[in-house]
């Protein structure tokens, strides 16, 4: 895809879509300043065991994705912009605590606030963005551009973070917190109210009745089940990757290189890959292949290249990034096919909630296995690769069975 294609896609976006896509970049800039180095800080600076590191990181995941359903439903009832702003303020508190805390209880509290903030603003941001797309093709492109912007934040975030780490992790937390405080004021000023949002009311349907109808949606629950593998794979960037790097006696620069590799690939290839998928293999094959590549990327941890001990981690980043680019935009773009327009926040919330619980349980189990003396870590990497094969096949069959709707 050339520059003119990208500019044409950008011009088609509404003003609100442009603000949200730019915000996606800024969200990731602040997030990835801190999260890639959190596990290393907990393990090396504070002396926590891998199990406790997994608990802190897992709680952050659980409180975010595990509470997405509440955040998404609140967005449906109260308005998406309001939840986006509230989430930014709570994340300010969470990041400040992670930067300053020296004991486990405060670290857990900071992890909870950091995650809960994401549970408030992420489903509302996705639902707001889905409102801007007139059809499925445009929705695929909008979410691809959102992922492209996120990759930009993922590229710059670790670079800023590693620079601040040279001073102190405390400054990583405080600067990240200040960035989200600035985001609050920017979105309060420039993100328009979604006037066309059809807000739900308790008189129309009680929220637990809505949740019950969502759980009974068998097609949607099947889609979520296979997507759980993506959430588990993604969280290993913050648990398995730092642990394996540390076990091999390598510095945090390797983690930075991995994140830079995935970001550069995302920035340069996300939009071309999305256009290629729409013209050739289609969404079902792309999503199945994406899960296969993400799971298979962990086989790189079985390799040790003499003289270039970092090379297998770069290969891991390449395969992981290619899989994510195939899969992630389509996951977000396909959720609206299962629901009414007034339920977008709740459906995005449930999708991420179930994935968050799966990622939390997976992190606790993997963190425990990484802590067991004498346990061969190769079994973990082989298990993740097998999960990629099984979930990829299941996702392909699930998406093939969908009848694509033109509007939400």
Automatic annotation (TrEMBL):
For this UniProt record, the keywords arranged alphabetically read as follows: Cell membrane, Membrane, Transmembrane, Transmembrane helix, Transport
GO molecular function (one): transmembrane transporter activity
**In this protein, which residues make up the domain named Major facilitator superfamily (MFS) profile?**
16-400
- Quote the PROSITE patterns the UniProt record gives: MFS
This protein's membrane topology, according to the annotation, is: Multi-pass membrane protein
Q: Where in the cell is it found?
A: Cell membrane
**Pfam families, alphabetically?**
MFS_1 (PF07690)
Principal localization?
Answer: membrane
**GO CC terms:** plasma membrane
Which InterPro entries is this protein grouped with?
Answer: MFS, MFS_dom, MFS_trans_sf, MFS_Transporters
The transmembrane residues are 20-39, 51-71, 83-101, 107-131, 152-169, 220-238, 250-269, 289-307, 313-335, 347-372, 378-396
Keyword presence, Ribosomal protein: no
Protein name, per record: Multidrug resistance protein MdtH
